[in-house]
Amino acid sequence: MSRSTSAAMENRMNTEDSGKGTGSSWRTMEKFDARSGKSFRKWAELLEDYFIVDNLVRDEAKRAAMRTRLDEESREFLKSRTPMETGTFECCVETLSKKYNGQKAKEAASMRARAFKLDMREEKFYASILEYADLVTATSILKNEELLKHQINMIHEQLKNQEELWMKLYYQNKYESLIELATDLETSWKLICEKKKRKDHFSRNEKNKGNDKSQGEKKGYSKDAKMKQNIKCFNCSEMGHYKTNCPSLKEDKARVESKRIYVEEEASESMEVMRETNKMLKRMLENKVYNRGVKVKQEKKKVYLNKENKKTENEKIATLRTAVEPYEFYLPVEGKDGILLSGLIDSGATRTIVKKSTAMRYGFKQNRQTMTKIVLADGTMKKAVGDFKTQFKIIPDILVNCSIVVVEDSELSDSKYSLIIRSDLLKATETILDYGNKTIIMCGREISHLTVSKEKENDRIIAKRAAINSEKKVEELKKEFKNVISQSKDDIGRCDIEAPNFEMTDKQPPKIPRYPVPFSKKEVIKEQIQSWLKANVIVEDKFVKWIMNLVITPKSDKTDRVCLDSRPLNSRLISFDYKTPTLKDKAEILNGAMYYTTLDLVQYFSQISIDEKSSKFLGFRAPDNTTYRFVRLPFGVKHATAIALRIINVVLQDIEEAFSYVDDICIATKGSLEHHFSKVREVLERLSQHGLKINWKKCQFACEEIQYLGFLFSRQGQEPSPSSTEAIKNFLQPKNLRSLRRFLGKVNFYKTHIENLARIEIPLTNLLKKKNSLFEWNEECEKSFSQIKKELMKTCRLIMPDEKKPYVIHCDASGNAHAAALMQENSKGLKPLRFYSKRLQDRKTFVPAVELELRCIASSLSYFRQ
């Protein structure tokens, strides 16, 4: 919109509203600047106040007036919107508020607050406190008293290097307003600075006295004589005395000094009380004074009372009740991401503790300089990797700001809790632990808590029961198929099905640079080469042409894996395409089975032979310059996985209850236990016929539920495995597109278990569209990120369909996503079979709701169709 158009619009509004008593004070309002990053909604609220003053009520006039007060960028944005988004004044305000929500200004304030340091100069200190408090207000969603408490805590943190001010705010943190706080701190700081100046001045005078005396003795005349000759007063310009000893200032200084000393004595006196209190508490803890004077006789279920008056009044009688079962309090705690944690109350712990995996979700960054040790109530030591400050909520509505120590996950191996709550938090919330009634009172009201039963946990023990009942049959299989079981690390089989020939685009070797082997890893490579030679995986070849490097990669158990760096070969190798059946194809076999058995093929790739021509492309050099070549399929070749899948599928063909994913063979049956073992025997016979061997320690037999390929399968149905959901729960906030894609890839693997996932992911998938722009993580992204984790924690078990019962589809459609749930009714009501969700392309034209719902029904039927 040009300036002439804007002026014409104003003239038109003046003409139309001239007879209606409207004013024009809204023209004096500052124009909205889109680049400032400020919130449009706040600006619009002020504009509406101007309209009320001017008696401007017509919607069209209000829209036109608003457009004249917009800058060019916001006007162009409003012009590009659809008529539905700009039809009324409220619609215009809502559209612009979504675009200019003040997030940039909030992020800028957050960055400034993180880097802000209080200006400790006396004349700047008061203004610096108010400036920092404004930044805290801009970055916080709290209001009124909660905001003031948050500001006090943040200012307290800023003063951690000023011991006296920090202690003052620690013991006196109740203020009615921010001005009162700033004034109190400014007064205290001026007193501290004045005290320091006097102390420094006194030190200089004492030093000068000593110097003057020594110099006077050397030269043979007194100090007074020297002062009369060399000293000039900067107040009265007379010789013979300092400005501080000027007679004209003595009277004024005496009056000021008397007032100052009175105020300072009060401040210093309170500080001395604080220090003495801390020293006394330390002495009590070191000497264990709190345990003196109490005599306890321990005997189960007996109470001794002093019926005879033979003891003195100073002796205290204690009764003891023996605890049969320990009782522990667990508090439900909600973190910043909205995910619930379980916190164990330990009033004797020196610091509040949290697992490292949990702390990383809240922005913790490890710093080696902060590593310390902490002591729990039972005396055990925990090694800390750092600490950080955060806020969490004790359910239902108690917000707590505290400093938490971070330890490795292995230090808190108990899965019942992720957090240990210490006594300072209990003191801040005025907590009362009533073990008699088993209640917790915080902030004057009872708080619900969790308890852990001491009964034997039924954690996946169903599978163990099945194994115990079938122990004899498993032992029979072990004796019968000794030739299939690997007896040592170097005892691997050799499959009679050979890998296909390697087809190359160019058989001449490229120039392959040689990478030096780290000295510390040379022994590892030598041991691996000897193991390969014993297992007939490699042979020595003095004239092999294709000589590639060996690389070392870490395994999941933190040991080293030696592999062939076959990237030069892969660039010239023609792929061997083989599409293996997906988990969806095998879900019918896995879901609802009565028994499961898994077999692990030992070093499966090394059991597959390759022909001599192909072996010539797989050479490498040892650290002692001896050259070898692989005669078995090595790990790292481009099509090695496809070849291995094809071979194992050939071995297991015609056995419908068995299938494999690379080296993991799964056998699932829906009949009796005898029928299951007959199928296991059939599979073992096939492996024996083809010369393959298994790792007996990693095999599981006749389990009633099993974790396989990221899912937990049982006769009740299918659900995500706990280890996988825990990994997603601990996933850190993405910092770039690469980490965001990793997170969405993990989540979408379980999309059939999460209802309406596509709609929840919209703020995150929008970031993927901005490939060439900055990665901007806003509040909507954070809400989506947390909501996805919550939904994943609530994922339900999907049941197997019953072909005799009818199916029910629940659909939901909107302008940006489709969602549906395929369900069947059983004795407990409707239960889900699968979930479906899909994001739609952005539409510029209006689509009726009926059409959206019909399209959703059609796409969900197409998705669920077998």
Automatic annotation (TrEMBL):
<keyword id="KW-0175">Coiled coil</keyword>
<protein>
    <recommendedName>
        <fullName>RNA-directed DNA polymerase</fullName>
        <ecNumber>2.7.7.49</ecNumber>
    </recommendedName>
</protein>
<keyword id="KW-0460">Magnesium</keyword>
<keyword id="KW-0255">Endonuclease</keyword>
<feature type="domain" description="Reverse transcriptase">
    <location>
        <begin position="534"/>
        <end position="713"/>
    </location>
</feature>
<dbReference type="GO" id="GO:0003964">
    <property type="term" value="F:RNA-directed DNA polymerase activity"/>
</dbReference>
<dbReference type="GO" id="GO:0004519">
    <property type="term" value="F:endonuclease activity"/>
</dbReference>
<dbReference type="GO" id="GO:0006508">
    <property type="term" value="P:proteolysis"/>
</dbReference>
<dbReference type="InterPro" id="IPR043502">
    <property type="entry name" value="DNA/RNA_pol_sf"/>
</dbReference>
<dbReference type="Pfam" id="PF00098">
    <property type="entry name" value="zf-CCHC"/>
</dbReference>
<keyword id="KW-0863">Zinc-finger</keyword>
<feature type="domain" description="CCHC-type">
    <location>
        <begin position="232"/>
        <end position="248"/>
    </location>
</feature>
<keyword id="KW-0064">Aspartyl protease</keyword>
<dbReference type="InterPro" id="IPR050951">
    <property type="entry name" value="Retrovirus_Pol_polyprotein"/>
</dbReference>
<keyword id="KW-0540">Nuclease</keyword>
<dbReference type="GO" id="GO:0008270">
    <property type="term" value="F:zinc ion binding"/>
</dbReference>
<keyword id="KW-0238">DNA-binding</keyword>
<feature type="coiled-coil region">
    <location>
        <begin position="460"/>
        <end position="487"/>
    </location>
</feature>
<keyword id="KW-0694">RNA-binding</keyword>
<dbReference type="InterPro" id="IPR000477">
    <property type="entry name" value="RT_dom"/>
</dbReference>
<dbReference type="Pfam" id="PF00078">
    <property type="entry name" value="RVT_1"/>
</dbReference>
<feature type="region of interest" description="Disordered">
    <location>
        <begin position="200"/>
        <end position="223"/>
    </location>
</feature>
<dbReference type="InterPro" id="IPR041577">
    <property type="entry name" value="RT_RNaseH_2"/>
</dbReference>
<dbReference type="GO" id="GO:0019899">
    <property type="term" value="F:enzyme binding"/>
</dbReference>
<dbReference type="InterPro" id="IPR001878">
    <property type="entry name" value="Znf_CCHC"/>
</dbReference>
<dbReference type="InterPro" id="IPR043128">
    <property type="entry name" value="Rev_trsase/Diguanyl_cyclase"/>
</dbReference>
<dbReference type="InterPro" id="IPR021109">
    <property type="entry name" value="Peptidase_aspartic_dom_sf"/>
</dbReference>
<feature type="compositionally biased region" description="Basic and acidic residues">
    <location>
        <begin position="202"/>
        <end position="223"/>
    </location>
</feature>
<keyword id="KW-0862">Zinc</keyword>
<keyword id="KW-0645">Protease</keyword>
<dbReference type="GO" id="GO:0015074">
    <property type="term" value="P:DNA integration"/>
</dbReference>
<feature type="region of interest" description="Disordered">
    <location>
        <begin position="1"/>
        <end position="25"/>
    </location>
</feature>
<dbReference type="GO" id="GO:0004190">
    <property type="term" value="F:aspartic-type endopeptidase activity"/>
</dbReference>
<dbReference type="InterPro" id="IPR036875">
    <property type="entry name" value="Znf_CCHC_sf"/>
</dbReference>
<dbReference type="GO" id="GO:0003677">
    <property type="term" value="F:DNA binding"/>
</dbReference>
<keyword id="KW-0479">Metal-binding</keyword>
<keyword id="KW-0511">Multifunctional enzyme</keyword>
<keyword id="KW-0548">Nucleotidyltransferase</keyword>
<keyword id="KW-0378">Hydrolase</keyword>
<dbReference type="InterPro" id="IPR001969">
    <property type="entry name" value="Aspartic_peptidase_AS"/>
</dbReference>
<keyword id="KW-0229">DNA integration</keyword>
<keyword id="KW-0808">Transferase</keyword>
